Amino acid sequence: MSPRPPVFISAVSRELKSARQLVANTLTFLGYQPVWQEIFGTESGDLRAILRQQIDRCKGVVQLVGQCYGAEPPMADEEFGRVSYTCGHL
Fold first, then answer.
1. Which of 63, 65, 85 is nearest to 74 (CA)?
2. Residue 90, pLDDT score
3. What is the CA radius of gyration of the chain?
4. CB 3.0-4.6 Å disulfide test: which of 10, 31, 40, 73 passes with 63?
5. Which ranges of the chain have pLDDT less than 50?
6. Which residues, 6+ apart, have CB-to-CB distance to 24 below 8 Å?
């Protein structure tokens, strides 16, 4: 049996947690392995590097967009400027 292809789900947790879970359930049903920030540890290292590593190993990304904007790193990304990688605030 071949491994299930991973797909990263990006969503502001406070606003879209239930929608993200629905997408995760659907991806699982379709034979994919859903991945998102809350299911892997971020204790060691730069969160941006950890998230990029997780996203890079995935075969796709599903981005859920709502009204909220996620938290930004303290310093702007050299390549992309101000970006949000994580859970947000209302």
1. 85
2. 40
3. 13
4. 10
5. 88-90
6. 9, 34, 36
